């Protein structure tokens, strides 16, 4: 028997052991030995790409548990079936894109057969110590993942036995390097530093003098406490947090439209800092504030940029991807800001640096699976009471609506046609017009906003008519209805009391539509355009008015028929406006003439709030609502929040509810997840969050199928019954019914309704109708209007962009992060790295009533805020330290993982974290500890020894002086000029003339008092630099900015020195100096130095400044001071 020799390399320590294993025919028939034959083969051929250092395709093969787990493409072996095992497919593939290994020698046939035999025999892999050791991830021993010590004692040092605890930690690191802290800064420097760091504003000269002149040991403590109780403290420190979470007042991306109701979150953060809300409570509220009495707090979850519905592709693939992107922003924001983790890096694969898995990522996503970007009513203390009162009114309103329904006129689909003189499809200008006549604003008859009366409908003319120079017998316009049959004609025109309009405009019916053949023409009406319709005597206002409708009689039309407007014998002008044609089954006889209405039977305009369609009772199994046009020229897909169907037997009972077995279908749905799903069309709930949207711009249909035939006579629909939204409103539509789904009858449509936007008085409209009980109906309308007004007032509440919440979606792990490749389901769980952390569940008064979505968020909130969480306290104390000293103990404040920097002084960081927890998570306690330390109070002077040993000042041998942030520069500039508006809270001011959209952001040219507020109250625009101060490293609010860069550029100096803002401020400061210091230039300059630099000028400074002021004006000195490095510096 021929012996075959296979050679394998076995990696042992740093060397390679060469092992030869003879394989005879008898051996090949039994399972190969794993340790001597299979493991060496895998290590030699596979470990470079699929070992502990590198896992291409998410596959790791050197240890038992990893091998059988598989990678991105699934399990690599199917024990007992080598032919169906991916491993065999890849090592035998001839495709260079698929074959393994991709480089180097291929496996020999003998090696392939070894693996086949091993798999066919069951792929036995006895677990060894090596396999067990491979499961221990050394990354889990990273410093920040370890629990906080139970107690840390500050080191004792001989250098400064009276130092604070913070100083003792720092001195213990300084001493081995032969360094000591700088001497204390002088008192003027200290108070300036304290005010800028703590409030972002300057101390007044009086405050400086009071501190400098107070020799008592409590003087500094008094300053600290004053700063911590100042309302400006919260404004300053909220700014830092808003930078971290990417707070802005626009949605971002290319359209970047305004997010007008985000500001309550900003005000909440300011108040939280001012009230010293415990940080663990603050953290809980970021995730579940709606359950904890702080409704605005969940603005944290949706603070980032987001694509709006109209910016997402209409296809489901685009929607699923956009949803994943939105959730990723929530996960990224939560993990980086609160935990200092880059968990979002595990969206497509396990984290490349930290021990965080893709499973961890999607388990975290499950906590937020019911969170949507959007705004909702802000539930303040009186919210529930107001909602209960509004709900109490609802039953009365429903009863009145039911009574009103029976008095409404029936719809007349396809029976009425209104033709505006500007309708290019049905109107031909035979002579160039002179222009429009615009109705004046107002509600009087014929004015633009005329809502109608007992005699006329509201102004349907869009507020204007067209006029020409009048010439007797000359045709100026023709209407071409394109209809066949008998019709009733109403006319309207532009009336004007000046006397210039013709008194005998002729309306000519021409059967063939050809003006040159007049034998088929007849005059149907002659209008006196001095008067509105129905008026023949008296005087008329000398202003352009809509005439209202004038009945012109019954006519017969063919497809070629036309109506001409012909010049009269009088006047110099002739006008045209809307005409109306009502289809008749036959011409009216003489006995019916008295019953002909004076105006067309128009129904009310389409309303986003409620539309009631009434028709003769009909037996149906199907109801279909079809949209052919939406408001705003079909820019968006149509939306309906609820389609309700009623019958004559029980007029108050909605027959279309899904709970009754009614099944909806549609032409296509905007979304199959979240809000706007198809099931919302008949789920019995009102409002935008429970609405259906088509997947086609301007069109689409939705259908209800009843389990059995029902008798119906009324349909109600709306865009948003809660009255918040009016976009996406169908304005051209029809509602059809069917008994079998094959033959359809249109029962109502838009054709007999006034156009959307027409001013309309519903009481007058009912009184104009031919209903027998129209007077009673008008009374019902009056009652309804009053009740709805009261209800709307109760329901009207401040909106807040803090997310909306719904039942959570199913969460699945996505292969490579691709929504089109879902794999195993996952449940909400904290990352396995922290599974050992014990949390205490927050007691909630309505715990038994919480939804699953609410329970999920509350569970996560409790874990994030737990004392035992190793990251939450460390991360926030590092942020506080950073904003005091210019750099954190960890220089990567959003990344405490393995890719971040190690702390410059970990014992100090951990001690501060323990102090925070021990104090009840008080941020102000941290401030007190830091502000009373020698490290904070030391001078900022530099010396050569320190620069040589610690140029970056990581040991804190001096205080790091630094330039103010852009907000502080602007605020302090306005402060010293006495222009700063200290108004707190509320909607922000804008630096720009427009707020969002494709029109761009032109800068405000003139600043009002509102624009002179503190910059924290500005309308923060993503992807747009703030005028003047954006150059000072003001962040793009689309990105998290945990640590602002500090650049020095020419554009900064040019912006600040030459900007209109600075020049105006210099003038204002000069005016203040003159008013407060009197005519003495010396006194003015001394006050200028005190206001801006908190010190007196030196003799040389004073002499130079006096010369400049005398020669060039005081404002030029002020301009120089506002541009000086000393003014811009936190010393």
What is the secondary structure topology, with strand pairs?
Blueprint: E1 4-12, E2 15-23, H1 25-28, H2 34-50, H3 64-69, H4 86-92, H5 109-120, H6 129-134, H7 165-174, H8 187-199, H9 205-212, H10 219-229, H11 231-245, H12 263-274, H13 279-288, H14 316-339, H15 358-367, E3 371-372, E4 376-377, H16 383-405, E5 416-419, E6 427-429, E7 435-438, E8 464-469, E9 475-479, E10 485-491, E11 494-495, E12 505-510, E13 521-527, E14 545-546, E15 550-557, E16 562-566, E17 573-576, E18 579-584, E19 611-630, H17 631-634, E20 639-640, E21 642-646, E22 663-666, E23 692-693, E24 700-718, E25 730-738, E26 744-749, H18 762-768, H19 774-795, E27 799-800, E28 804-805, E29 812-814, E30 822-825, H20 852-864, H21 872-885, H22 906-918, H23 923-931, H24 934-937, H25 944-949, E31 962-963, H26 966-976, H27 1050-1058, H28 1060-1077, H29 1081-1093, H30 1099-1112, H31 1114-1122, H32 1125-1128, E32 1129-1130
Antiparallel strand pairs: 1-2, 3-28, 4-27, 5-18, 6-9, 7-8, 8-17, 9-16, 10-15, 10-18, 11-14, 12-13, 12-16, 19-24, 19-25, 20-23, 21-24, 22-24, 25-26, 29-30, 31-32
Question: What's the short version?
Answer:
This protein is of the alpha+beta class and 1131 residues long.
Q: How would you sum up this structure, described in words?
A:
The chain is of the alpha+beta class. Among the domains are: 4-136, no CATH class; 278-377 and 806-864, no CATH class; 416-588, Jelly Rolls; 611-759, no CATH class; 962-1130, no CATH class. Helix content is 32%, strand content 15%. The strands form 11 sheets. Strands 19, 21, 22, 24, 25 and 26 form a 6-stranded antiparallel β-sheet that branches. Strands 6-9-16-12-13 form a 5-stranded antiparallel β-sheet, with no helix packed on it. Strand 1 (4-12) and strand 2 (15-23) form a beta hairpin. Helix 2 (34-50) packs across helix 5, helix 8 (187-199) packs across helix 9 and helix 21 (872-885) packs across helix 22. The longest helix has 24 residues, at 316-339. The protein is globular. The termini are far apart. Mean pLDDT is 90; it is low at 1-28.
């Amino acid at each position: 028997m021929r012996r075959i020799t296979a050679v394998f390399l076995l990696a042992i320590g740093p060397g390679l052991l060469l092992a030869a294993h003879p394989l005879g025919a008898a051996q090949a028939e039994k399972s190969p030995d794993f340790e001597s034959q299979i493991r060496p083969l895998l290590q030699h051929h596979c470990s470079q790409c699929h070992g502990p250092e590198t896992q291409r395709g998410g596959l790791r093969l050197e240890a038992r548990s990893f091998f059988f787990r598989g990678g991105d493409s699934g399990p690599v072996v199917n024990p007992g079936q080598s032919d169906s095992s991916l491993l065999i497919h890849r090592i035998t593939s001839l495709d260079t894109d698929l074959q393994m290994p991709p480089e180097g020698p291929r496996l020999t046939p003998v090696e392939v057969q070894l693996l086949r035999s091993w798999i066919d025999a069951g792929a036995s892999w006895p677990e060894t110590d090596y396999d067990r050791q491979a499961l221990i991830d050394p990354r889990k021993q990273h410093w920040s993942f370890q629990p906080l010590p139970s107690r840390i004692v500050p080191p004792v040092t001989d250098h400064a036995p009276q130092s604070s605890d913070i100083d003792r930690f720092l001195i213990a690191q300084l001493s081995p390097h032969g360094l000591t802290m700088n001497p204390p800064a002088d008192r003027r420097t200290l108070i300036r530093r304290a005010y800028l760091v703590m409030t972002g504003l300057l101390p007044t000269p009086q405050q400086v003098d009071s501190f400098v002149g107070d020799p008592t040991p409590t003087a500094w403590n008094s300053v600290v406490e004053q700063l911590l109780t100042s309302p400006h403290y919260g404004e300053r420190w909220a700014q830092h947090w808003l930078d971290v979470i990417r707070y802005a007042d626009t949605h971002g991306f290319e359209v970047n439209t305004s997010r007008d109701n985000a500001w309550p979150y900003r005000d909440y953060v300011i108040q939280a800092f001012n009230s010293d809300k415990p940080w663990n409570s603050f953290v809980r509220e970021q995730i579940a504030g709606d359950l904890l009495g702080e409704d605005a707090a969940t603005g944290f979850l949706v603070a980032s940029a987001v694509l709006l519905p109209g910016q997402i592709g209409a296809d489901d693939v685009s929607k699923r991807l956009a949803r994943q992107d939105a959730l990723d922003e929530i996960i990224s924001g939560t993990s980086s800001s609160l935990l200092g983790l880059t968990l979002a890096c595990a969206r497509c694969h396990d984290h490349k640096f930290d021990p965080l898995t893709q499973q961890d990522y999607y388990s975290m996503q499950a906590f937020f699976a019911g969170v949507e970007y959007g705004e909702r009513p802000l539930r303040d203390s009186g919210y529930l009471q107001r909602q209960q009162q509004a709900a109490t009114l609802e039953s009365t309103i429903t009863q009145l609506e039911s009574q009103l329904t029976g008095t409404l006129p029936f719809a007349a689909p396809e029976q009425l046609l209104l033709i505006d003189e500007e309708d290019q499809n049905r109107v031909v200008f035979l002579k160039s017009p002179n222009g429009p006549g615009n109705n004046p604003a107002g509600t009087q008859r014929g004015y633009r906003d005329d809502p109608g009366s007992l005699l006329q409908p509201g102004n349907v003319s869009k507020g204007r008519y067209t006029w020409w120079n009048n010439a007797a017998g000359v045709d100026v316009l023709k209407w071409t209805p394109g209809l066949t049959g008998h019709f009733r004609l109403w006319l309207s025109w532009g009336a004007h009391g000046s006397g210039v309009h013709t008194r005998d405009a002729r309306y000519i019916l021409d059967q063939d539509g050809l003006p040159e053949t007049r034998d088929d023409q007849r005059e149907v009406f002659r209008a006196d355009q001095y008067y509105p319709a129905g008026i023949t005597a008296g005087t008329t206002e000398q202003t352009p008015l809509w005439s209202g409708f004038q009945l012109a009689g019954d006519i017969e039309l063919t497809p070629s028929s036309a109506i001409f407007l012909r010049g009269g014998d009088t006047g110099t002008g002739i006008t045209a406006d809307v005409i109306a044609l009502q289809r008749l089954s036959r011409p009216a006889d003489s006995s019916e003439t008295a019953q002909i209405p004076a105006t067309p039977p128009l129904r009310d305009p389409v309303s986003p709030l409620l539309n009631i369609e009434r028709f003769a009772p009909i037996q149906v199994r199907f109801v279909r609502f079809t949209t052919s046009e939406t408001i705003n020229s079909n820019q968006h897909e149509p939306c309906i929040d609820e389609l309700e169907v009623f019958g004559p037997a029980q007029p108050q009972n909605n027959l279309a509810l899904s709970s009754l077995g009614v099944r909806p279908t549609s032409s296509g749905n905007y979304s199959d997840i979240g809000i706007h799903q198809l099931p919302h069309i008949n789920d019995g709930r009102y409002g935008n969050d429970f609405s259906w949207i088509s997947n086609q711009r301007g069109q689409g249909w939705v259908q209800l199928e009843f389990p059995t035939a029902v008798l119906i006579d009324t349909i109600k629909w709306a865009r948003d019954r809660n009255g918040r939204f009016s976009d996406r409103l169908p304005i051209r539509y029809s509602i059809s019914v069917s008994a079998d789904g094959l033959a359809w009858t249109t029962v109502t449509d838009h054709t007999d309704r006034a156009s959307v936007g027409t001013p309309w008085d519903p009481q007058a409209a009912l009184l104009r109708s031919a209903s027998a009980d129209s007077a009673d109906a008008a009374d019902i309308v009056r009652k309804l209007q009053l009740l709805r007004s009261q209800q709307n007032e109760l329901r009207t509440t401040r909106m807040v962009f803090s997310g909306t919440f719904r039942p959570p979606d199913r969460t699945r792990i996505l292969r490579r992060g691709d929504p089109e490749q879902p794999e195993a389901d996952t449940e909400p769980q904290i990352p396995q790295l922290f599974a050992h952390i014990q949390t205490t569940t927050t007691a909630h008064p309505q715990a038994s009533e919480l939804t699953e979505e609410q329970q999920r968020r509350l569970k996560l909130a409790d874990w994030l805020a737990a004392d035992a969480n190793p990251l939450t306290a460390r991360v926030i104390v590092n942020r506080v330290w950073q904003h005091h000293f210019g750099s954190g103990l960890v220089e990567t404040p959003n990344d405490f993982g393995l890719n971040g920097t190690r702390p410059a002084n970990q014992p100090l960081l951990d001690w501060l974290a323990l102090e925070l927890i021990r104090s009840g998570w008080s941020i102000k306690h941290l401030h007190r500890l830091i502000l009373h330390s020698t490290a904070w109070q030391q001078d900022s002077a530099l010396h050569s020894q320190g620069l040589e040993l610690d140029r970056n000042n990581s040991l804190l041998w001096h205080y790091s002086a630094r330039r103010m942030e852009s907000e502080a520069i602007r605020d302090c500039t306005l402060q010293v000029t006495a222009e700063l508006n200290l108004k707190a809270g509320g909607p922000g001011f804008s630096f720009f003339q427009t707020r969002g959209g494709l029109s761009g952001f032109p800068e405000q040219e003139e600043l009002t008092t509102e624009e002179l507020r503190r910059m924290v109250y500005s309308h923060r625009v993503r992807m747009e630099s703030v005028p003047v101060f954006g150059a000072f490293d003001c962040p793009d609010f689309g990105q998290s900015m945990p640590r602002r860069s500090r650049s020095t550029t020419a554009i900064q100096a040019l912006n600040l020195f030459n900007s209109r803002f600075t020049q105006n401020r210099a003038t204002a400061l000069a005016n203040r100096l003159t008013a407060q210091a009197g005519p003495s230039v010396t006194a003015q300059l001394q006050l200028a130095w005190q206001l801006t630099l908190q010190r007196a000028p030196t003799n040389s400074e004073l002499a130079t400044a006096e010369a400049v002021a005398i020669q060039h004006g005081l404002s030029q000195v002020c301009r120089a001071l506002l541009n000086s490095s000393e003014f811009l510096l936190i010393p």
